[in-house]
C-alpha cells in the first residue's frame, strides 16, 4: 500500500493562498454590499384588463298550418316573413357571453323589460326580474328564454287608444336587457353595463323583428404601475452572499489548516512556555548584548536566571536570531548571566574579527554558512557554523 506524502508549503505559498482568498473575500464583500444597496423592487406596468361582452337575441316563431309555409312549423331569423294571422306564438332568448384576458372575480345582474312605445306615450313591463350571475375565471355566460306576447301588448295599446281617443300609428315593442357587470382582478376593478335590445312591430299584419345595434361592447382597464420584485437583483444578492459565506469559510479553514500544519519544535515549545510564564520580567531586544570584553556566565535553568534578576534588580533581556536558538540575559556591568535553549543541530560559534580581533558569537544549524559583520569595525565575511 502506497503512503501519501504530505506536501509542505513554503511560507510564500501559504501567504499567497491567504492573500488570494482574502482578495476574493474583499471583492465578495464589496459586491454583496453593492447588491443589497440596489432596490429589490421596480416599477412595472401591469398588463391592462381587457374584456369583451356580447348579448345575442334569437327567436322562434311557431306557425299554424298554412299554404304559404306548407309543412313548415317554425320560422327562425332570416327564414321568412312572420305573418300575424298564421303565427301561434313567438319565443325569444338572450345569450350573454363575457370574456376577459385575466383571471377575475365576475359578478353581475340582469333584468329584461318590454316597452310599448308610440309617438305620444310609452309603457314598460318587466319580463325577467333582477337575476344574479357569478363566475370566477376568464369568462361568464348566461341565457334567458321568454315569450314575445305580442297579442297582450297589442291589447294594452288598444285599451290606451280608447282611453286617450288617439289612433297611434306604428306602435313598437322594444325588448331590452339591462346588464350590470362588476369585474374584480388583482390589479383593478371595472364597472360596466350592456343593454342589448330587439324591436317588434305591433298592430300590423306582419310582425317585423329587428335586433339592436348596441348588443356588443369591448373595453379595457387603466394601465397600472405596480411595484414588483426585481428577480435579477435578488439572484445577484443570493449569488454574492453565497460567495461571501464560502470565502469566509475557506479563509477560516485555510488558516486553521496552516496553523495545524506548522508544528512547533521542542525548543520553540519550551521558549513559548518561558515567554508566557515570565513575560513580566522579559524585555525583547533586537541585537545580542555580548561584547568583546564581556564575561559570559551560563546558568542551568530559567529559574536560576530569574533569581539572579531579582537579586540584582535587573531585567531579563531576550534575543533570538534563529527559531531554534533562544537567549536570555541578565546584564551586570561587565558580567553577563545567560540562559539559552537550542534545538538539535544548533551550534554556537565564537570567532575573532581578523581586523580588530573582536570576539563575535554566532549560532545556527551545523554546517550552515553565515555572512557576518563585525559590530566594531564593520568588516564583513562568511563563516561556517
Report the β-strand fraction as a percent range.
Answer: 35-45%
- Helical percent range? 10-25%
Major sheet characteristics: 9 strands, antiparallel
Average pLDDT reading? 85
Structural class: alpha+beta
Total separate domains: 4
Description of the structure:
With 385 residues, this protein is of the alpha+beta class. It has 4 domains: 62 residues; 177 residues; 77 residues, no CATH class; 41 residues, no CATH class. Strands 2, 3, 4, 5, 6, 7, 8, 9 and 10 form a 9-stranded antiparallel β-sheet that branches. β6 and β7 form a beta hairpin. α1 packs antiparallel against α3. The N terminus is likely disordered.
In short:
The chain has 385 residues and is of the alpha+beta class. The protein has five helices and 20 strands.
Topology:
Elements: H1 11-37, E1 41-46, E2 50-63, E3 74-75, E4 87-117, E5 122-147, H2 150-164, E6 172-184, E7 189-194, E8 197-201, E9 209-211, E10 216-220, E11 224-229, H3 231-261, H4 266-277, E12 282-284, E13 295-298, H5 302-312, E14 316-322, E15 325-332, E16 335-342, E17 346-352, E18 359-365, E19 369-373, E20 380-384
Parallel strand pairs: 12-14, 13-16
Antiparallel strand pairs: 1-11, 2-3, 2-4, 2-10, 4-5, 4-6, 6-7, 6-8, 8-9, 14-15, 15-16, 17-18, 19-20
List keywords for this structure.
five-stranded mixed beta sheet; about 375 residues; 4 domains; single chain; alpha+beta; 5 helices
Amino acid at each position: 500500500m502506497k503512503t501519501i506524502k504530505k506536501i509542505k508549503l513554503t511560507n510564500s505559498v501559504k501567504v499567497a493562498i491567504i492573500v488570494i482568498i482574502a482578495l476574493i473575500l474583499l471583492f465578495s464583500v464589496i459586491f454583496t454590499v453593492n447588491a443589497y444597496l440596489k432596490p429589490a423592487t421596480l416599477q412595472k406596468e401591469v398588463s391592462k384588463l381587457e374584456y369583451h361582452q356580447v348579448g345575442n337575441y334569437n327567436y322562434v316563431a311557431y306557425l299554424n298550418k298554412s299554404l304559404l309555409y306548407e309543412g313548415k312549423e317554425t320560422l327562425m331569423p332570416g327564414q321568412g316573413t312572420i305573418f300575424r294571422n298564421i303565427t301561434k306564438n313567438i319565443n325569444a332568448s338572450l345569450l350573454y357571453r363575457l370574456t376577459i384576458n385575466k383571471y377575475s372575480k365576475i359578478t353581475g345582474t340582469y333584468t329584461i323589460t318590454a316597452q310599448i312605445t308610440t309617438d305620444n306615450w310609452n309603457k314598460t313591463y318587466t319580463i325577467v326580474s333582477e337575476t344574479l350571475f357569478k363566475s370566477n375565471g376568464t369568462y361568464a355566460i348566461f341565457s334567458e328564454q321568454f315569450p314575445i306576447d305580442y297579442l297582450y301588448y297589442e291589447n294594452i295599446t288598444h285599451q290606451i287608444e280608447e282611453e286617450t281617443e288617439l289612433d297611434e300609428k306604428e306602435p313598437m315593442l322594444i325588448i331590452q336587457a339591462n346588464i350590470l357587470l362588476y369585474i374584480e382582478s388583482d390589479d383593478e376593478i371595472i364597472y360596466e353595463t350592456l343593454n342589448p335590445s330587439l324591436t317588434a312591430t305591433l298592430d300590423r299584419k306582419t310582425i317585423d323583428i329587428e335586433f339592436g345595434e348596441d348588443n356588443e361592447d369591448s373595453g379595457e382597464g387603466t394601465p397600472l404601475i405596480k411595484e414588483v420584485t426585481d428577480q435579477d437583483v435578488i439572484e445577484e444578492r443570493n449569488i454574492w452572499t453565497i460567495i461571501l459565506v464560502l470565502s469566509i469559510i475557506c479563509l477560516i479553514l485555510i488558516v486553521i489548516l496552516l496553523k495545524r500544519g506548522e508544528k512547533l519544535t521542542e525548543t520553540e515549545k519550551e521558549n513559548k512556555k518561558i515567554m508566557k510564564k515570565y513575560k513580566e520580567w522579559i524585555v525583547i531586544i533586537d541585537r545580542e548584548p555580548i561584547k568583546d570584553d564581556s564575561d559570559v556566565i551560563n546558568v542551568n535553568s530559567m529559574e536560576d536566571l530569574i533569581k539572579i534578576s531579582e537579586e540584582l534588580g535587573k531585567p531579563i533581556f531576550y534575543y533570538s536570531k534563529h527559531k531554534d536558538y533562544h537567549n536570555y540575559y541578565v546584564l551586570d556591568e561587565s558580567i553577563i548571566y545567560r540562559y539559552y535553549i537550542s534545538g538539535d543541530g544548533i551550534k554556537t560559534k565564537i570567532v575573532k574579527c581578523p581586523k580588530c580581533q573582536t570576539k563575535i558569537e554566532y549560532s545556527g544549524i551545523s554546517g550552515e554558512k553565515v555572512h557576518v559583520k563585525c559590530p566594531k569595525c564593520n568588516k564583513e565575511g562568511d563563516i561556517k557554523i
